[in-house]
Write a structure and sequence with these properties.
The protein is elongated and about 130 Å long. The protein has twelve helices and 42 strands. Helix 1 runs antiparallel to helix 2 and helix 5 runs antiparallel to helix 6. By secondary structure, the protein is of the alpha+beta class.
């Protein structure tokens, strides 16, 4: 009995021990497959054993993720983030997988948990900064259209580059007679560089291997070309593996084209066996190489770098594009659009729809990065979207994606039609409508650049739409003109937006009377902007407002119908802080419908020029107004009729500017005794003060002083012989502004 019991114990021990050894071996094999990108094989081995360690569960979840088995990956990460021993990156991965499964609300919840755990991570900061705009990217706003290509197969096809009327891309398919070798990562052929002709409709055809003599045993591609088409940068595996399963770094090699032959590729100087470099793009001026690397010193994952290209073909030291582009996640597949200075790239570290999303970045003239944004659907989806390339005019392009419903299997090329180009600070667009709210065609829309003075024109079609590509983000004015219609105008200040949608411009038929007015500053003759123009129609008390443009121009259309051959009676009030407010009364006979030039009319009929006087506290109104000297009869203080006309000008100013306060200061010449002159000047100041006060509202706004001969403006003091003209300079009245 005891021997049998001992035998059973021994057998149980051996069984448990052998099982443990077998489990340990399978686990080691699974981890090796995982490290060598053999995710399908890793899944098979991980699934055959019971996983207790969180690190092993994480590798299985990532293997599911990498093979697009998202539901399984989500289930495991759901368990991991609720278990002890998980790290903050597990939370981010779980939130990312939820986005790929379109569970955006749940993903947002876990992203906020990730931010609480790791508040300094730039991915979380970007998420919070752009969360309010998520609704814009999840909605297809009709700015682009994607087209399924017939050439796609069950193989990988991705990463396009334009070259000589063809699209050059990477493919795992067999497009030559070479032996098809498969790699461990997905069981498909190693990548080769292929080329396809671009058909007029954007379809790709006649696929063949590009420069087959460059093909090697391992991955080659994607590639990039310079503008001249004589420099090719190739992404390829290094020859030396880093693991038993053949994990290899990526490197960049360059080939020059001499005549019609590509030369042997030469590795770029910043390649290393310690990190990868790949996925290049060359700027339009051929001065910069943009590429991806996980070299030390970056933000994490893979970052986008830039290296200068010298005239002799040598490359400078790589520089990281910085935090506006890169995150702790992965930034990949840069494409520099030469004409519009835009960098397109993909990232899984910024707020997106799931997986890799395409982002659009402004590259300024000084090479700094400006605005960066996610274009949303349909460019992006809940899966990996990357490798966007566009033609020079941004009309067509190609996108790489593993999304559902557009490709056949795995990564596929997708055609892209651009309806609204990606531009920064250049597009100014809007609609011209008529008085009935209908689109107005055949309208000449003019845009005047406030910085350069350059003018562009656009003629609307039946949609009434207009569109300008403005090179700078500056102030501008837009006018819309059509025969038989009143000109419309819009003034805009500087806008920091890539697309500025201007409010509807309304052109009205000449069924009403309109006035055009240009206001200038009295001393300089410069136009005065932002002047509030108020037109009061005294016949019905209706008031119409306007405001002058930066060119001093304003167009006012009467609010009421006006019968022809009748006389309109108006008060025109113009006001702006720092200037004297003015009121001009006029009557006009309307002999026709349409636009009247009010400046010309007032000059012709009233001999009055519409101008504004710039004033400040302490200024003498004599300096900005045409006020003649105020005369009194000798040795008297009685106001003469000609003096009253000049004082009436001050009365008018006081009534038009209800807040202005002045001090009236009277002076005499030196003839006579100083005592008499002081008394006389005080009397004259007082009667002038009383004259003005009796004719204005709030008469306390006027004070006066007499200075006698105490403040002579020339040499004409006692004992000095002076002309009558010289003495007259001293006999003056000042109107000093005390308050505005």
């Amino acid at each position: 009995m005891k021997s049998r019991f001992f035998f059973i114990l021994v057998m149980l021990y051996l069984s448990v021990n052998l099982t443990a050894q077998n489990t340990e071996k399978k686990l080691e094999e699974a981890q090796e497959e995982f490290e060598g990108f053999g995710y399908d094989q890793a899944i098979e081995k991980f699934e055959s054993i019971s996983l207790s360690e969180i690190a092993d569960k994480r590798k299985l979840a990532i293997s599911y993720w990498r093979t697009n088995r998202l539901n399984e990956a989500e289930d495991i990460f759901s368990d991991i983030v609720k278990s002890e021993g998980h790290v903050s990156e597990d939370i981010y991965s779980y939130a990312a997988i939820l986005r790929e499964n379109r569970k955006y609300d749940v993903s947002e919840k876990w992203m906020k948990i990730f931010i609480e755990v790791n508040p300094t991570d730039s991915r979380g900061q970007d998420f919070l900064e752009n969360l309010a705009d998520f609704g814009k990217i999840v909605e297809d706003r009709g700015k682009q259209k994607i087209v399924r290509l017939a050439m796609n197969s069950e193989e990988q096809d991705f990463g396009g580059a334009y070259y000589m009327g063809k699209l050059v891309f990477s493919s795992s398919g067999e497009h030559s007679k070479a032996i098809l070798r498969k790699w461990n990562g997905n069981g498909k052929g190693f990548l080769k560089v292929c080329a396809a002709s671009i058909q007029p409709n954007g379809e790709l055809g006649d696929v063949e291997e590009f420069e087959a003599r460059f093909s090697r045993k391992y991955h080659d591609g994607p590639v990039a070309f310079n503008a001249a088409g004589d420099l090719m940068i190739i992404t390829r595996n290094t020859d030396q593996a880093n693991t038993k399963k053949g994990q290899r770094k990526l490197q960049l090699v360059a080939s020059k084209k001499v005549g019609d032959k590509w030369q042997k590729p030469i590795p770029l100087p910043f390649n290393s066996s310690d990190y990868s470099c790949g996925l290049a793009s060359i700027s339009g001026d051929n001065e910069w190489l943009y590429f991806v690397s996980n070299m030390p010193g970056g933000f994490g994952g893979t970052d986008i770098y830039r290296a200068s290209i010298s005239e002799d073909g040598t490359f400078g030291t790589p520089e990281n594009l910085g935090a506006k582009i890169n995150t702790e996640g992965n930034e990949m597949f840069p494409f520099f659009h030469a004409k519009d200075h835009i960098l397109f790239y993909s990232s899984d570290g910024k707020l997106g729809l799931g997986g890799l999303d395409v982002f659009v970045a402004e590259v300024r003239d000084d090479l700094s990065i400006g605005r960066v944004f996610n274009p949303g659907k349909p460019i992006n989806s809940n899966r990996d979207d990357f490798g966007l390339v566009l033609d020079a005019d941004q009309k067509r392009g190609y996108l790489s994606s593993n999304r559902y419903g557009t490709g056949v299997d795995d990564d596929d090329l997708i055609g892209v039609e651009i309806i609204e180009p990606f531009l920064f600070g250049r597009i100014v667009q809007g609609t011209v409508i008529d008085q009935d709210g209908e689109p107005a065609d055949s309208v000449v829309v003019s845009l005047l650049d406030g910085f350069s003075g350059e003018q562009k024109q656009y003629i609307t079609d039946s949609t009434g739409r207009y569109r300008f590509d403005n090179d700078r983000v500056n102030s501008f004015s837009i006018t819309a003109e059509k025969n038989g219609y009143v000109k419309a105008e819009i003034i805009s200040s500087s806008e920091k937006r890539s697309v500025l949608d201007v409010r509807d411009m309304v052109v009205r038929k000449h069924t009403k009377i309109s006035f055009k007015l240009v206001i200038k500053e009295s001393r300089t003759g410069y136009p005065v902007s932002e002047v509030i123009v108020k037109l009061i129609n005294n016949s019905d008390s209706l008031v119409t407002f306007g405001e002058t443009s930066r060119f001093g121009e304003c167009i006012i259309t009467l609010n009421n119908e006006t019968a022809l051959n009748t006389v309109g009676d108006f008060d025109l009030k113009i006001r702006k802080d720092g200037y004297l407010t003015k009121v001009i009364s006029f009557k006009m006979l309307f002999e026709r419908e349409g636009l009247y030039n009010l400046n010309e009319y007032l000059k012709r009929e009233l001999d009055q020029v519409v101008k504004m006087e710039k004033v400040n506290v302490g200024l003498d109104l004599n300096e900005v107004m045409e006020i003649k000297p105020i005369y009194f009869d000798f040795a008297t203080s009685k106001i003469r009729d000609d003096a009253k006309k000049e004082l009436d000008k001050i009365v008018k100013v006081m009534n038009e500017n209800e807040n202005i306060r002045i001090d009236l200061r009277a002076h005499t010449d030196s003839r006579g005794t100083s005592t008499v002159n002081m008394k006389l000047s005080r009397q004259r100041a007082s009667v002038s003060e009383l004259y003005i006060k009796s004719r204005i509202s709030n008469p306390e706004r006027v004070t006066s002083k007499g200075f006698g001969e105490s403040e002579l403006v020339n040499k004409c003091k006692d004992g000095v012989s002076c002309s009558e003209e010289d003495h007259q300079q001293n006999r003056r009245t000042e109107f000093i502004i005390l308050e505005l």
